[in-house]
């Protein structure tokens, strides 16, 4: 499903029509594997789809076995470069 059509976006628009008080938080960006889905997420957070004055934030929590900071940084960089 396209991220911009999720029910929560519709609810936010209903209560904050101008997007002045809504903060977008997207979790688990590392689980997005398809190129088109990555482009969709990046378009959303870079103001190309749904504009929010407070912006969007991507949150990736480290797992119990995710103790390698170098690997974490490499994953983050690869996500940014694929767009």
Descriptors:
two-stranded parallel ribbon, 3 helices, elongated, 40% helix, mainly alpha, 83 residues
User: How helical, in percent, are the residues?
Assistant: 25-40%
**What ranges have pLDDT less than 50 throughout 5 or more consecutive residues?**
none
Strand order, main sheet: write it out: 1-2
**Major β-sheet profile:** 2 strands, parallel
| Domain module tally | 1
Tell me the distance between the termini. Answer: 19 Å
Assembly of the depicted chains: single chain
Given helix and strand content, the structural type is mainly alpha
Can you offer a commentary on this structure?
This protein is mainly α. The chain has one domain. 40% of the residues lie in helices and 10% in strands. It contains 3 helices and 2 strands. The protein has a two-stranded parallel ribbon. β1, α2 and β2 form a beta-alpha-beta unit. The protein starts with 6 loop residues before the first helix and ends with a helix.
Task: Describe the structure in brief.
The chain is mainly alpha-helical. It is built from three helices and two strands, in the order αβαβα. The protein starts with 6 loop residues before the first helix and ends with a helix.
Layout of strands and helices, then pairs:
Layout lengths: L6 H9 L8 E4 L7 H11 L10 E4 L9 H13 L2
Parallel strand pairs: 1-2
